Every structure is written in structure tokens, then in C-alpha cells.
Amino acid sequence: MKPIKHFLVLMLLLVTSVTSAQVTFEAKVSKKKLGINERLRVDFEMNKDGDNFNPPDFANFMVVGGPNQSVSNSWINGKRSYSKTYSYFLAPKRQGTFTITQATIEIEGEVYKTTPIQITVTAAVDKPKDGNNADYIASENIHLVAEVSKTNPYLNEAITVVYKLYVSPNTGVSNWREIDNPKYSDFWSQNIDIKGLKVQNGTYRGEDYRYVVLRKTVLYPQKTGKLEIEPLSLDITVDVPTNRRDIFGARLMNQVHKTVSAGNRTINVKPLPEKGKPADFTGAVGDFYFKVTTSKYELNASESLQAKVEVSGKGNLKLFELPKLNLPSSLEVYEPEHSENVRTNLDGMQGSISDSYTVVPQYKGKYPIPSISFSYFDLKTESYKTVNSNEIVVDVLEGPTSNVGEDITSANGNKQRVVLSNNQFAFVKTNTDFVSTKPKHFFKSMAFWSAMVLPFLAIPLVIVFKKQQEKRQADVFGNRIRKADKLAKKYLGEAKRELGIKESFYIALEKALHNYLKAKLHIETSDFTKERISDLLISKGVDSETVSHFNALLESCELARYTPINHVEMQKDYDLAAKTITIIDKEVK
């Protein structure tokens, strides 16, 4: 029995050692069912360190935090316990059942994968009204509101949507980004530029709040009936006060992520009345002035003039067609050149639009440009108005006459008699001013003396330039710095051109930072560690805050592919890079 007993003990120890050496890599979630207004935490845990970690694409979710990395390494009773975790915080984009796909990592030359996990997203859930709960406090003190100027406009009447973010006095916002933008599919839209966010005081539901205007948009409805304005949604980092205080008695703040939405808004668009609608109405709505002008009233045959049809005022200037000129058939007319001088503000479009026709008469005579009409819907009186232009007569003074006695055709097709004269060829010039084409001699001319003297005057300049060039070429160290500086500026310029394209932008930004340091600190790429950079910059007299900003930029470049980053955050990183390089230039000794 003893040999069998010893054999069983040996097998048990062998199985235990093999099990303890087994590699584990798994995904864990905080919950498998959540409301669309809740957050989900996903942890990817492994018991051995690995390389080339690739997270899932998190389709149907938005990454609002992470990746956060944590490592646990301990010894208990002589046995080592190791754990490494990558954590992500996700916000669902829509309701439904979704799958968090596999993550992969390479450990000891083998590729390991996690098991896919199904997540069910339900409608928004009610959260407990706990005055100590940071999420509840944030939801009660942060509000995104879409203020619509008019909810029952006419077709093609301008309305404005102003998005305001209201924040209570005891709550702070440290960062925000847009996660869902309205498309305005049934509207002509124009965003109004906002130069800097200005904090203002106001009231929301009768209580004092601070607010900022995030976006202003002008809309012209293009369909009648009930139209939906899609919501604007933001992911906000909120600083919420807690009941805890520091050693000085100041209240500590807790930071939470909050998704807020302005909600859908319904616009009931009224059709324009059919009663009294003019036959020439092309959709103009607003308050307009109309005129037809010509650049000349008298000219000779084969000369040209400009006939301009112009509408100015306030309304949907870009959304209707101008009336066409009706000209006599004996005038040669080219396709009109359209011009717009329109600005858009919260009151809608204002300015002018015009069509400019180039007109060339072929024969002598008087040519009438008859009156044309322009109709629009006046919002003040809620009725149609028609404006007529003045009739213009163009007098062609000199030129050939038509071979036919009655040749000039009016705009409506009637013939007008042309009075023939005996001097119909008077426009042909019989006296000319000829200029001699005999070549002039180069010898003793101004060009001759200039060619003789200029080389002698240029000799001192050439000597000075050559000395400066030799001095610059001898400065090997300076040339290397200048070359690296130019390269850094080049990559910083490339980063600016790539703003909005996350991967390309951060690659160019990282190259710019690296090449700048190579020029300033005279170190090779192999020396680029954060500790080495910090030590060298501080030893050169650079402030520690500036050093931390530089390291933060390098971290942003490294983590960019794991984090959803919008144009605003990329612009902030670019501005910080330019500012940091300028400060280091000033502080490096």
C-alpha cells in the first residue's frame, strides 16, 4: 500500500504545480444588465505580465474612462501572487443586447483571448434620491437646455436653437465633449461661431444658476408638418461637493462622469398660403428689396455692358432663384455670374444676392430692357408682395445697322423700326497712330551702362555673403540645432494640419516633441524615458510644472488610440504643446 500512497501524493503535487503555473486571462463586468443612463465597468485581468494588449472595439458603447492599469504583486507563505488589470468605463449608446468581444494579449509567446460577454441595455432607470450620492447630485445640478426661438414657423422662416449648459453654484464642470450631434436633416442649418465660452448668471426653474452658451444654430425648415430637432448630448466631468473636508476645513470634491441631453424638440412648420400666391413666386420668404441696373446706358456696338439683377434684405437669401432678364433677341447675352454677399446671425440671413449678365449689342439702335417682377412672402404682414423693376433703354450710338430694315426685336417678340443713316460705317477708324518698329541700338544705351556697372557694385555684397555662409557652415553644433528645430516646427505644422484625425494628429505631435528635445538636450532617441527627460529638463532650469505638462503630452500621444478624443481636446493638446515648447525655450539655460 505504501508505494501506491506515495504515488498518489506525488501525482497530487504534480497536478497542483501545473495548475498553479497555468496562465489566466479573463474579462469581468460590473453588471450584465444596466439602464441607458448608467455606466459599466469592464476589467481585463491576467495572472502573468504580457505584451501587445488589444482591447475590444466596444461597439455600441462609448469609452468615458480608461484604460486604467493596476498591478498587484504579493508573497504569501513563500508563494508569489501576481495580478495585472486593464479597466475601462463605458456608457451605452442605445438600448438593446450587445456583445463585448474578445480582448487579446501575448504572454510568454502565446496569444490569449477573453470570452465574449453579453450586456443588456434597458431604458433609463430611476436612481435613488440620495443626497450623498455623487451621481444623483450631478443629475440634479447639471442641465443642458435647447432654447428654440419659435416652434410654429412658416416654411423657409428662420428659427434659432441656442444650447445652454446650466450648472448650480455649488457644482463644477472640469471637462465636456459632444457625444451625439443633431443632424437637422429636414432643415437648412448654419452654426454661429462662438469665440470663447463666457460664464453668465441666470435662473433655471426659478433657481439661481450659472450657464454657458455652447452652440448657436440658425435653421430654415424645408418641409411642412411636424419636424424633429435631434438632441445634443454631452459627456461631462462634474465636480460634486461631498460631506468630507480636508485638514483646513475646506469641502472635498468628488469627480463623476455625467451624460446630459437637451432632448428632442418638435417644430410644427406651417405651409405658405396658397391664396394670393403670385405665379412668379420661387420661395423667397422675408423682407426684401429688388432692382435691375446696368453698368452703361450708352455704348458702341461690340462693346459690353453688365446688367445686374439684385435682391437684398433679410430672409432665406440662399434658398430661392432670382428672376431671369428678358432681353431683345438681337443682343448677345452670356450666362449670368451669380454672387452672394450674405452673413448669418441669430436673426437669420442678411445681405444680398445677384446675377450679373454680360450683354454685347451687335447693331446700332435703342434696346429696351423691360421691367421684370420679383415676389416674396412678407412675414410681418403674412402676405405676398410683388416688386417690379424699372424699364431701362440702352442706346447703341455707333455700329453697323442690320441688313433688314426692321431688325431690332423687342423682348416680347414685336419688331421695332430702325432708322437707317448714311454714316453707318462711321465707327470704323480711318486715322491710326503707327509706331516705328525699327530696333534701337544696344551700345551706349541705359541697359548697356547698367550691365557694365552692376557687376562691380555686386562684388562687396558677394564677399560679405560668402563670409557669413562660411561662418554658418563652420558652426556644426549650431547647424544641428537649427536643423532639429526646423524638423520640430515641420512636425508641429503637420500636427496642426491633421487636427480632427486622431491617429495622424498624435503621431505628428509625438514626432515634433521628440525632435524638439533632441535639439535642446542633445540626446538620442534611445534616451527618451520620462525619468531621463524630467531630470535633464530640471537640470537645465526648466520649471517642474512645465516638465509635468511635457510628460502629460507624451502620455496623451501614447494613450490616444485607446481613448475617444474629439477636436476640442486635440486643439487643447496642440495649444499646450506650442505653449510648452515656448516656455522651455525661455527657461533652458
TrEMBL record:
Keywords: Membrane, Signal, Transmembrane, Transmembrane helix. The keyword Signal applies. The chain crosses the membrane at residues 446-465. Residues 1-21 form the signal peptide. It holds the Pfam family BatD. It comes from the Bacteria. This is BatD protein. It comes from Hanstruepera neustonica.
